[in-house]
Design goal:
mainly alpha, Growth Hormone, Chain: A, three-stranded antiparallel sheet, 4% strand
């Protein structure tokens, strides 16, 4: 493909290099979040594996069941853990969207911590029963249902838009690595002492709750941002946003997702509290990439 030379007497203009986005781990909030997610997933997955083994062992030794009967009990355990996931997933998403997400995740971790402590106490005193294991496994499933969406929704709120893709990738790394390490660590600790694995999980969940408490508060989105519009003619609610929301809408700034430079954007609609331009999405003057709308930190509440 032929190139067009520049006019005589003019030097060729090279495009500016796009600055590399910083690492998500350079932000303290994300470091706390990453550690919280890693420890929580590691603890919960280790508990899932050990609960299944204990139920099978209890059915065989204490209840005298055959291999077939004990295997059926193990299948029922999976059902008890799946039913909360199937029923409460919409409720968990609703809670993460309408309540402070950090608090939802901390509360879920503390519930899991109590379950781990209860299982550890009964295991240590050799008083486990099948009804107890089924009940605590179901409660463990409930805690996991609420923890997942709340934890996943925190990352996009604690890093700049330019760092978000790498932050999501690192959050997935935390989940995947903990999912692999958790069962292995749980099995090794269980071999040393059956009750020690629950002490290990309780400590990890306590660390997760503490590190999440160090992350800045992540407020739920304004109802207008969830609905996206107002007015019955648009298919939305007929309720108008408060004045403060309309003022904040007029103070949205735009930030380039590639180079992070701020660009002014005109044509905002004051009739909605939505971070979307009423005109075509503007372009960054430095790299010509599309820019995202973000709340202006200098705007008054």
């Amino acid at each position: 493909m032929a190139t067009i030379p520049p006019p005589e007497g003019e030097d060729p203009v090279m495009p500016e290099a796009t600055p590399k986005a910083p690492s998500p781990l350079s932000f303290p909030d994300f470091r706390y979040f990453w550690l919280a997610r890693f420890t929580a997933v590691m603890a919960t997955i280790a508990m899932v594996v050990v609960i299944g083994y204990q139920l099978y062992d209890t059915a065989r030794t204490d209840y005298g069941m055959s291999i077939k009967e004990a295997s059926f009990q193990l299948g029922l355990l999976g059902l008890f853990q799946f039913v909360p996931l199937a029923i409460l997933t919409p409720v968990a998403g609703w809670a993460a969207d309408r309540f402070e997400r950090r608090s939802v995740a901390i509360f879920s971790n503390l519930i899991d911590l109590l379950i781990a402590a209860t299982l550890g106490w009964f295991t240590w005193h050799d008083q486990l029963t099948l009804p107890l294991l089924f009940t605590l496994a179901a409660l463990h499933g409930v805690a996991r249902v609420f923890s997942g969406p709340a934890m996943s929704a925190i990352a996009p709120n604690i890093v700049p838009p330019a760092v978000l893709p790498r932050a999501i990738a690192m959050s997935s790394i935390a989940w995947q690595s903990a999912s692999v390490i958790g069962p292995a660590a749980g099995g090794l600790i269980y071999a040393a002492h059956p009750g020690a694995v629950y002490v290990f999980s309780a400590i990890l969940l306590a660390i997760s709750a503490f590190t999440l408490s160090r992350v800045r508060r992540v407020q739920p989105p304004h109802p207008a941002e969830r609905e996206g519009r107002y007015g019955k003619e648009d298919g939305g609610s007929s309720r108008r946003p408060p004045k403060s929301a309309a003022i904040r809408c007029a103070r949205w700034s735009t930030v380039c997702a590639s180079c992070g430079s701020s660009v002014s954007c005109s044509g905002r609609s004051r009739s909605t509290c939505s971070p979307c331009c009423s005109q075509a999405r503007p372009r960054c003057s430095r790299c010509s990439r599309a820019i995202y709308c973000t709340p202006d930190p200098k705007a008054p509440d």
